[in-house]
Write a structure and sequence with these properties.
Largest sheet: 7 strands, mixed
Number of helices: 10
Number of strands: 17
Strand content: 15-25%
Radius of gyration: 30 Å
Length: 399
């Protein structure tokens, strides 16, 4: 980095008046007073209790409620002020990190006054939200030292990272984007529907669970509940793996072959950041399209590709039929079907058959039907006011 600070040249000195002399002296005192008043005992601007941290480069915590206010390299203007204006309505700031690149490392080579730059950046922050200057927050000055060139330094993040608690989460009736799901998982918003969380609460006895989730458009609000419930009950949830399917990654219907439709993704539950990243990938790559879904292809793929589970739970859309019912014969473990979107209607026969044939169970908002696994030929069972009978190895409506 090279700045021309001054260039010597021949000048002709002219006498100045006493009035001009006093004006120059006063101006110097004003400037010195402003600079001294802007620094604390550590030399940093404003009277703020900075904790100084030196790291190679800044890494964001994907799970923390936070806003990153971006600034250009060696600049003080906030590029996205609206992000904090929106976020501060949700809660109060708890920590503010001022992140910059210390390049060159040797301060004798600096062409920029870092103290002045920090001062100007803080002025921009307090102009955006004056309350932050007096807020009871932790202040950190984060120096990034891992850059070896100005080009590399310019690619690093610069600006403020404001972390905050969430005291007033938004209520979301519909979840339509990966950002909506992320807000729910991070606690920045709550879903209006909590039916799936209630089902999970009733079945805390499930251990070492492999969750297979329909992740097409109408199911986002239900799948987000599973992830949120796991986060809130991480020590006892029992969920080990998550498999998400979107019915083919935007394939046309004619391209969707049984067992080879695709759009199936896996994430281990112990890495919530990875789970959120996977959710975004599944949503970006596909949204379902037509009504039938490849539920059983996802179940089969989970059974064959994942180890270390005892329970299989299928989060299914009762409004959609199963595209690949012929695969049912290849599933030899009980499948617990959690039904979403049923309302007051009947249980879709595809999901009744899956639970019955695998000797699993059905779970609705109202009840857990555990007897599916014990049904024998000729048995009659009543499910939510509707009677079914086992005839010739199939579960049929019983009139």
């Amino acid at each position: 980095m090279c700045y021309i600070l001054y260039r010597k040249k021949s000048v002709v000195l002219k006498p100045i008046s006493k009035l001009q002399s006093w004006m120059y002296v006063c101006l110097c005192f004003v400037l010195l007073g402003q600079f001294a008043g802007a620094q604390n005992s550590n030399g940093y601007p404003f009277d703020l209790p900075f904790e100084t941290v030196s790291i190679p480069f800044y890494e964001f915590d994907p799970l923390a409620p936070q806003v990153a206010l971006r600034m250009d390299y060696a600049a003080a203007a906030i590029e996205n002020p609206q992000d904090w204006i929106r976020a501060r309505s949700l809660g109060n700031a708890t920590q503010i990190e001022l992140v910059f690149s210390q390049y060159p490392i040797d301060s004798s080579d600096w062409g920029t006054s870092y103290y002045r730059l920090i001062h100007n950046r803080l002025r921009s922050l307090f102009a955006l939200d004056p309350d932050l200057q007096q807020a009871p927050v932790t202040w950190k000055l984060v120096r990034q030292t891992g850059c070896t060139s100005e080009l590399q330094a310019r690619q690093f993040f610069h600006g403020f990272v404001i972390r905050y608690d969430v005291t007033r989460p938004r209520v979301l009736r519909h979840l339509s984007t990966s950002k909506d799901v992320e807000r729910v998982v991070l606690g920045l918003a709550v879903p209006q529907d909590t039916s799936v969380m209630g089902i999970m609460d009733r079945n805390r006895h499930w251990k070492n669970v492999l969750i297979i989730m329909d992740w097409t458009g109408s199911m986002y609000a239900y799948g987000a509940q599973v992830v949120l419930w796991h986060k809130l009950n991480a020590e006892t949830s029992g969920i080990k793996h998550l498999v998400l399917f979107n019915d083919g990654d935007r394939k046309a219907t004619w391209q969707k072959q049984i067992g080879r439709t695709g759009g199936i993704y896996h994430a281990a539950s112990n890495d919530l950041g990875r789970v959120i990243e996977t959710i975004g990938t599944v949503m970006n790559n596909g949204y379902g399209g037509d009504t039938p879904e490849n539920d059983l292809e996802a179940v089969v793929k989970g059974l064959k590709g994942i180890e270390g589970y005892d329970e299989i739970v299928l989060l299914a859309d009762n409004r959609s039929q199963v595209r690949d019912m012929p695969l049912l014969k290849s599933i030899d473990k009980p499948v617990r079907v959690v039904l979403c979107g049923k309302g007051s209607g009947k249980i879709h026969p595809d999901y009744l058959r899956i639970a019955f044939k695998t000797r699993g169970s059905i779970h609705t908002v109202e009840e857990d039907i555990m007897a599916m696994g014990q049904l024998e030929e000729g048995d009659v069972i009543e499910i939510e006011g509707i009677r079914y009978k086992v005839r010739s190895g199939e579960l049929e409506l019983f009139e």
